[in-house]
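Task 17 of the worksheet. Students: predict the tertiary structure of the chain below and write it out as structure tokens. Keep your answer in the requested format; marks are given for formatting as well as content.
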Amino acid sequence: MNKRRSALVAALLLALVSCEVEAQGPPEGELTIAFDATIAPALLDPAETSGLGTLFQFLYALHDALAKPLPGNNMAPSLAESWRESADGLVYEFKLREGLKFHNGDPFTADDVKFTFERYRGISSQLLHERVKAVEIPDQHRVRFVLHAPWPDFLVFYATPATGAAWITPRKYIEKVGEEGWKRQPVGLGPYRFVRMTPGVELVLEANEQYWRKKPSIKRIVMKGVPDRSTRLTMLKTGEVDLAFLMFGVEGMTIKNDPRLRLAKAMPLAAWWLEFTEQWNPKSPWHDRRVRLAANMAIDRQAINESERFGLSRLTGSIIPSAMDFALRIEAYRYDPIQARRLLADAGYPNGFDAGDLIPMPPFSTEGEAFANYLSAAGIRTRVRTMERAAFMDAWRAKKLRGILATVTTMPGNAASRLEAFVVSTGPYAYGGYPDIDELFRAQAQERDRKKREGLLHQIQRLMHERVMHAAIFEPAAVHGVGPRVDELRVSSTPMLSFAAPYEDLRLKKP
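Model answer:
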């Protein structure tokens, strides 16, 4: 009798455990994503586009653009059916797709396009607003941008994810509810509509069945902010989430060795580098080119590639990805810690020096530790300082961070858009610059001959390398963990993106 009772109790316990495990998994028709940082309201507003690729993981779900990268086309017509450039390069006219409505039912018109452009305050907003003379509306389905002077890169800066200026927001709705109301309940034109958000924790979206491109097959998407990589791994293994973004190192290897899970790789237009924020200060050791060169030679890029990215990333000597238009391919500096110490001694630091903070882009703390260890071995002593991603991005753009930044961007565009953001002295993330580089940048921006323009952009990149303005590390592979419920993921179907998109193409396996 006792044996029977014990067996019955054991069976009941097993059933309860099974039910608990099953309850942890997402409901049928729901995809749950463990995002690699906390989720802030600013990530849902195209006007706040930061110059880093993070934001577009949300914009591709909630919003839509006049043009955007889609499978097979890096500048595919979306809200705009077509566009044309005038012979003199001064006018760009977009023909808008008719019959579209925002999630709240308001019609999409040319007024929304003009309003969005005028409201835009994100990356390269000053450049766009300075170069566009007027935005004209011939009728409610056409919009015309008139430039002060020919600008060969207008479409790159406006109609690609180099900025968020062409990701359209609803004029009537924002004017009705105000900026605070818009933050609480954003409305878009994308394949998913906003349901609710717990800032820092979770975002819930549901399918927009009237989306013009196609009806999404997944009814609901839940994005959870999970900065810690080991926690994302646990959630993926228990079935609490279906996707875990950016899974590297030990956690990535654990996924690779689990027969129920798999890794999905993307090679976006991205680059990792160390930013020497103090190089413009004559009193700083970083003002000396030999010190910056020593830092470059102190780092074993391939070892970090192997330990963090399974050897999938491409080493580089440039912050401009080699596959990007107008990029000059530059090989990485060799790993030579002995020569690094000699360079420091020649610069007057035979015993090395204290370089202050080394701040890695959140949540990549293990990369930051690796960089710090290699620099320390050569005599450049740092303290790794970790931050929350939104705070890091705000402080970087405000130029409040000091020391060394270990950072990355996946923002699409071309070499000119990267230079404008990170190298030109007026750039939103540039702590300084050189007059000759600034002048070359101005010249290329007006050059309509592609060959001549390429020569000017290559010259800028050579000067950056000769002056050792950065310590470029590698063009990183983005590796994501995928659970057993996911069928169609679409990672790497659009080379400009590092995440699973477009969301309307994602599919779950049939139960």
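Marker's comment: The mean pLDDT is 92. The chain has 16 helices and 22 strands.
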